[in-house]
Structure formats: C-alpha cells, structure tokens
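Standup notes, structure subgroup. Blocker cleared on the protoporphyrin IX containing FE input:
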Amino acid sequence: MSTHTSTDTDAARQHPVDEPPSGVTRRRLLGTAGAAGAAGLAVGAGASAGWAATRSEPEPLTSLGATRVPFHGTRQPGITTPLQAHGHLAAFDLAPGAGRTGAAALLRRWSSAAERLMAGEPWPGERAGADVGRDAGPSSLTVTFGFGRGFFSRTGLRSRMPRELAPLPDFSSDALDRARSGGDLWVQIGADDGLVAFQALRLLQRLAGEAARLRWQFSGFNRSPGATAHPTTMRNLMGQLDGTNNPKPQDEEFDERVFVPGDGSPSWMANGSYAVFRRIRMLLDDWDAEPLRDQERVIGRRKSDGAPLSGGDEDTAPDLERRRGGSPAIAADAHIRVAAPETNGGAAMLRRSFSFHDGFRDDGAPDAGLLFVAWQADPLRGFVPVQRKLDRGDALSRFLRHEASALFAVPGGAAEGEYVGQPLLEG
Ligand code: HEM
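Run returned:
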C-alpha cells in the first residue's frame, strides 16, 4: 500500500486498452484506464449498466485506491493532503446533556473510526455504511475534526476557547442561512472514491449517537486524479484554475501562515489550524453570459492556463504594477489584486475547496458553486481582512452569493493511541 505514491501496476499500462487482461471485466478496466489517464477509450459504448464483476484473480489496486494517508501525526490530515475527488463537510451540535465526558467519548469513537477507515479497514460491529466501501482501498480518505464556539460552552471549557474563534464579522454581501452555518463540531471528509467518502460520513453520523446531532452537511467534488493528461491545478465550476497562488509547503512562511506553532497558544491548539468555511453559490448563468475577455479581467488571470494578465505563465508572479495601453494589466478590482497578500498587509490563507452542485433552483439556475475552505493560523491574519476587502471591491462579487459560513478550531493531530482533541478534553 502506498502513502501518496503511485504504483505502476495499472492494468491499463500492462495491457492494450482494447484488450482486457484475462480475469478483468471491462468495467474494471475502464476505471483503471481512467485512473491511468489513458485517452480515447470508448467509455460511452462500453459502460452500460448491469455488468457484473466476474474477476477470478484479484488485481492490484491502482494508486487511486491504494493510496493511504496516515491518521496519526503532528497535524491532522486533510489540510495539506492533495485535494480529493469527493468531499463531505458536516457540522454537528452537541446534545445538551453530553458535556465534557460525552464529547470526549465521541471524539475517541470518531478518531478510531477515522483511523480504521483511513487504513482501509472496516469498523467492527457496525453495519451502517460498512458494506459500501468494503471492496475499495483507502482511496486517500482523510477525516479532519474541528470545534466551533458552541463546543466550549457545552463542555464547560469556555475559559479555554481561543481568541481566534471570535465570531466572523458580518460582510455586506452576506446572504447567510443561519441553520446551515456554525455548529459545535465539524467533520471534513475527503476521498478519491465516492463510496469510501460516503461510508465515512455515514459511519461518523451513526457514531454520533445520542451525543451530537447533525446540524448541516454539504457534499462536494473535484476533478478525479488521472482525468487529465498531466496534473493541473484544480478547476472550479466557473472554469478557472483555482489554487495557483496558494501558499506552498516549501515556502518559508508556509507553516507560520497556516498552522499554530508547536509552542503556540492555547497549548491544546499546538500544530492546529483555523478553518473558515463558506458555501458560495456561483451565479453561473450570469457568468457564462460574460465574454471570455471580461471573465479574465474579473480574475486577472487567463482562463485557459491561469497565466496572470501581466504576462508569463501560470507560475509567473502577477505584476500588479504593470500597465498596458495606459491602464493596469491586472485591473484595480481584479480578484487576484484585491485578494493578494501584498494588498492586504501580508494576510494569506491556504484555500482547499470542493465544488458543489445541489440540483437546480426554481428559476432554472444551477444551485452550484464552491464549498470554500480556507486554512490559516489566525483568521484575523487570513480570511477576515481579505474578505473585508473582497466584499467592498472585488469584480467577482457580483457573480457570487455567500450562503453559509462557519469557523472552526482544528486542533493538532492525534498521537498513536490518542484521539483528536484529547489535550483539550483531558488536559
Ligand atoms: C466562489 C468564490 C471564489 C472563486 C471562484 C475564486 C477564484 C479564484 C481564482 C480563479 C483565483 C486565481 C488563482 C489562484 O491563485 O488560486 C483566486 C485567487 C485567490 N483567491 Fe479566490 N475565489 C473565490 C473566493 C475567494 C474568497 C472568499 C477568498 C478569501 C476571502 C479568496 C481568496 C483568494 C486569494 C487569497 C487568492 C490568491 C491571490 C494571489 O495572491 O494571487 N477567494 N481565486
């Protein structure tokens, strides 16, 4: 089993794509060939419903199924883990009587379930969802846990609530649904297989038992690994490459921007991070009606390859001073100018989002957009100042509606034999 490495055992690499290796059904091969990026396979003709899997010999999993992300570690998984193809975000409220003991037992249950599922092992004695993912490998599953403000009052731990969890300010363009915002506990699930992701969500919801009730849940997706000929930055539903100018783990300031230091305060948040969640609906019909030139002006980057309008390629740093024909090459209200650390006193965050599509609204417009998740060491040096600025002067705003919002303290990772949040609940 690999930990974020590829195997080259793909059936598609070993066999011509039009000739399934013996013992492998065509359905299996299609999945494998997709993951290996083999182009030109006639999926439409072959992928009719009802094929039974009749393999006699088990084939090795492709890297997609076999990749395993460790649960234990200094930091929780799902923050710097490469984006997965499927995601679920769920918030729970603690039951009034659960208290600190109930919360600790819940976090212990949830942590051991996450550990097992992320290792590709079943959860013993629990049928809910267990059948769904059983023939899959870990598929890069990650489960990440966080605490909202309510968690601290309900567990009698208010005095240990970090100042960073101060409520987010109101923004003028907010259209928030309070019932789908906030929450005492947060679970972020990501996996490269949809059934594995669902299994984790279902099991955690069941294991909440009497201790916590689901408050809201959103499901999202990203491009599947292997779907493009070469790895690219993720595209969002507006069609833009999204994530280009994220802080990178190799940057000198990365840790300082994204994570609470190991000797940081409060001590139970050492190596943790703060996650801002926003459900941002895109007004896609309006967006699609804009000419390409105007779409690119709104962002300040080319849509095809993400190159900044000041020149170069995707990796070239945007030149905010550059002028073309008397006006700034990157417009004064372009999203990347208004959001850039340089124009926000250095404020930065790691954006790690999922797209969503929840059907169509009564007016026929897609209910679709971004489950925006931003990670930072302190929201006041990340999301808050940037969103204040975007709220006032971002050309992208007129194509967006912020409909749900939440802020969570995401503690550091659990050591072997421990559960997430133990230093807070038992410290
Ligand atoms: C649906 C809503 C949004 C869309 C479609 C969107 C799209 C994009 C795109 C295409 C880029 C350029 C590529 C990149 O560097 O990633 C970008 C950059 C960025 N966005 Fe957004 N964005 C959205 C919301 C937000 C929000 C709410 C924030 C924070 C409050 C934000 C902060 C940033 C930052 C910091 C950058 C990098 C700017 C730079 O340094 O170049 N974005 N966004």
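Discussed briefly. The chain is about 25% helix and 20% strand.
Next: hand off to the docking folks.
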